[in-house]
């Protein structure tokens, strides 16, 4: 039995905030309480409130502000001698680094966060940090290395009845199955994640699960209208909670669904929208995926062959630089699909 989802990153004076609180509300309340803690000279409370401020900025796509906030939270935690609060600040910084495509930095910060969490006796931040390491590896396409860690974290979350972490782990495992072609298994896991999230009132987790379901329903079943309906439901939640990054990924997925249905002009418009959104929040992984979708849609709409080849080659080089293995394989498949640099593309796919 799962308890109602909570947001452990909302700490100190902010524990009354819900996991479903609008990020604008979180930012406003967190900033107000942070200023109050500063005036009172309470570094421990400054660290806790600063964490929520950092996370709100990050999820709103405000990268520079998020960077400043997590570092300030860490300094305050250090001044307070609060090891667990230091771990939470590092977790936030590592998560931001992953979002920005700085994967080596993400692994270093998240690894330190897990160590400090264990030393400080906070099993939640330790679990979140290990989950962050697992997600970093998964995003880079290193499924063999992180698959077991995902399963381990899922078992721990189920044992403690932590709905939010259970949903996260299910979605991560489902995504790996989806990316390796095990669509039936992916569908089962995304569906379970959506059900648990709904019962636990985890609207963010539910929105991400619906996005995953939409993807599988589209690619496995060819059910375009069902997929679009799921994405519309998820978008409502993203807008209500100001989930900027999730909304951009929703728009990118809508483009994927439309592309698979042969509705290339509509797909192009969605990819262009998502690309602008990802660029606004400095999220290179999302930007790369939107660029890939846009390049494919434009090619289907008659774009010059040499322009398509140049764009895909540029994108391949960027993904090699960032270290996104699965996305790089997707570019190789697109090059093969359009007969561009086919020999090199097949080498990458193999």
Outline the fold blueprint:
Elements: H1 23-40, H2 43-59, H3 63-80, H4 83-99, H5 103-119, H6 123-139, H7 143-160, H8 163-179, H9 183-199, H10 203-221, H11 224-240, H12 244-260, H13 264-280, H14 284-300, H15 305-322, H16 325-337, H17 342-349
Helix pairs in contact: 1-2, 2-3, 2-4, 3-4, 4-5, 4-6, 5-6, 6-7, 6-8, 7-8, 8-9, 8-10, 9-10, 10-11, 10-12, 11-12, 12-13, 12-14, 13-14, 14-15, 14-16, 15-16, 16-17
What does this structure look like?
By secondary structure, the protein is an all-alpha fold. 81% of the residues lie in helices and 0% in strands. The protein has helices at 23-40, 43-59, 63-80, 83-99, 103-119, 123-139, 143-160, 163-179, 183-199, 203-221, 224-240, 244-260, 264-280, 284-300, 305-322, 325-337, 342-349. α9 runs antiparallel to α10 (203-221) and α14 runs parallel beside α16. The longest helix has 19 residues, at 203-221.
